[in-house]
Amino acid sequence: MYRFISGPNTRPGVRWASMRRKRKFVHTRDTSRISSLHGGLEFNASQNPDKIALIEAQDGSTTTFGELDRLGARIARGLLANGVVPSTSPVAICSDTLILGHHTIGSILGALKTGNGYMPVSTVEAPERLKTILEDSKTPVLVLAGKPSETVLAIGAQVGTKILNVEELLVRSVDTDLAAWSTISEGTPAYVLYTSGSTGKPKGVVASHGSIANRLQWMLKTYPWSEGDKAMFKTQLGFVDHVWEVFGALSAGVPLVISTKEARRDPEQLVSQMRDFDVTRLVLVPSLLRAIIEIVGGRPGTLRRSIPKMRMWTVSGEALPKSLASEFLAASSCQKGESRPILLNTYGSTEVAGDVSSYEIISDKDLDGIPESSELVPIGKPIDNTTIHIVDQDTNQSVPHGDIGELLVTGRNLADGYLRDPHRTSQAFITVPPESTKAFKTGDFGYLTDDGNIVFIGRKDMSVKVNGRRVDMLEIEALCRNIRDLKEVAVVFSGPGGPNSPGAGITIFAIGEGLTDYKIYDFLKTRVPSYMLPKHVFICKGALPRLPNGKTDYVRVGLPFKDEHSPAYPYFAQVNRRSVLSTNGTGALLREEWIRALGVPEDLITSESNFYELGGDSLSIVSLTASMRRALNR
Questions:
Q1: Any idea where the Carrier domain is (predicted)?
Q2: Rounded to an integer, what distance in angstroms lies between the CA atom of residue 191 and that of residue 136?
Q3: 202, 203, 200, 204: which is closest to 475 by C-alpha?
Q4: Which in 128, 143, 263, 266 has the greatest CB count within 10 A?
């Protein structure tokens, strides 16, 4: 038995099983490595410069690998000419003005070529958050398209970040030997992605070329691309899944279709573009997969017939319900002799290069072995060169086979830590015997099945996934405490029908004289991105429920809103209850579908109700539209 050996950042009580007990761990084999995030793209540019790399769905225009590599080199030289020092701080890339296109990928490539890596930021949402990120990262420049707003210019001046237009970079590009300026190794930072943090301050995850290259290499080897394959780029840059979307295809030398802005908001347009451009692979969250299945009709074979070229669906960012996997299998059924598309359920986080395990679903047999007690598809087994340990959350000792424990990840996928934040880094990234191995405490819980697959069951903290992005409720709480007149606040993920209802979302319960839901919403709007804004705000009287130790009782706070002990949502109180939708014909059907889509009590739906204020979003709108069309046979 390996026992605790004292060392820097090593937690007392850590104990690892010997080789006799390796059945309690999930191991994978070693593989050859690729050296950098953009190395595959550069290789394809040198070998097949005239091959198409990018296809823009907006107008059908294309960019070859050679053109893309030259664009990246010109932007890199422009950055150097503007004072960027190689291998120092990340280059900020505006994810709003650089609408997903060749300039977006060219700017990312340019930042990588300088040896600095890139850091996506939003200049439209939450200016206070932008200021915090630029100040925290000490980024020298922010690259954007078009004329920057006065707010962005002011923030740049305050924190010492130069605001540069991508066109200016191309004009000021000079003939410089990039290889002589920067040295890129596996340990060189490739990107910084800021995620939600419990202190009220976002944390920047620093990922090296080696960590993300291992993720790319595993996917390229396990699921090799074929001639005729096409991927689609539709994920916002702030979400880690964009890394595989972009560099998976470009490393393999296959075209990347860049979706339009409208398609990224409207799943119906996304389906249309996937079909029009013969897309074969897509990365998406389970909620979007459900919306797509509903759009195509949800009947046997409709998904296959609607998007015939699709052969691989990779779901990530949220837990995959077993029921949704069954719907996918039915909707993607095909004729005898045809190959069925793959549904790949992946698990991970920004701190582990996006994904560290996977579970493949091709037929009903892949669902038969799932424990009856589980409503979720397993997250599977680790990818190459990683290990997932199932341990006691307090002692970090391995738990008996089949017992529930915290998932602890070791291996090449691990990020370096949190940028300029040694305290939070030491809390999340610990070292363990033997040989002071670096490990990441995920905060996720699961157990190991007899066939070696891991089943995810939940988290230990106050963070949830919202549209695939990790959001810490405590960060929102910490920000709310800066609101004048606010005395108490609790933030949970819940809804009118409880935390698992269709209308569930980030919900704020606040106490304070003079507070309004709009005041809280407007305060947060300048400080957090849109996906972190609340769906529901309750202004309460009295006090929030407490545990015996005086702490907030989040279980009682998160009870369904219709519970008699829950306060009334301000919007509900303003509804004219007499103006009720008709109980006959289309009105009755519409009410029924609203109840299904939102999970709200029937008496809350009137002719004056606002779908979005009741917890609806773009995906639930798609679901509502699809079900109404089926009901009306249109």
A1: 581-634
A2: 15
A3: 200
A4: 143
426: helix, coil or strand? Answer: helix
Q: How far apart are CA 575 and CA 603, in angstroms?
A: 10
pLDDT of residue 448: 93
Contact 504, 473 (CB under 8 A): no
Expressed in angstroms, the distance from the first to the final Cα of the chain is 67
pLDDT at 631: 73
603-625 burial by CB neighbour count: b if 16+ within 10 A, else e? ebbeeebebebbbbbebbbbbbb
| DSSP-based three-state secondary structure for 631 | helix
Q: Which of 411, 412, 42, 349 minimizes the C-alpha distance to 214?
A: 412
Tell me how far apart the alpha carbons of residues 113 and 74 are, in angstroms, rounded to a whole number.
Answer: 10
Domains by residue range for the chain, with CATH: 463-574 (3.30.300.30), 585-632 (no CATH)
DSSP E strands, 484-560 = 488-494, 505-511, 536-540
Strand duo 141-144 + 91-94: pairing? parallel
DSSP letter, residue 629: H
Tokens at 630, concatenated: 């089926």
Distances (CA, A) of 416 to 123, 191, 193, 428, 444: 26, 11, 12, 11, 20
Residues 218-228 pLDDT 10s = 999 999 999 99
Model confidence pLDDT, tens digit, residues 318-329 = 889 898 999 999
CA 76/CA 113 separation, integer angstroms: 6
pLDDT at 549 (0 to 100): 62
Whether 526 contacts 555, CB under 8 Å: no
What order do you get walking across the sheet with 505-511 strand by strand? 488-494, 505-511, 536-540
Record the pTM. Answer: 0.79
Tokens 């290889």 found at:
179
8 upstream amide cis, omega within 30 of 0: no
> CA–CA separation, 205 vs 425, rounded Å?
9
- At residue 577, the pLDDT reads 34
β pairing state of 118-121 and 91-94: parallel
User: If the chain, 634 residues long, is cut into consecutive pieces of 10 residues, what is the mean pLDDT of each piece?
Assistant: 25 31 38 77 96 96 96 93 87 79 92 94 88 95 90 95 91 67 86 86 95 96 96 92 96 96 90 98 92 89 94 92 93 83 97 97 91 86 96 89 93 96 95 86 92 86 77 87 87 74 80 87 88 85 73 73 40 34 67 74 67 67 72 66
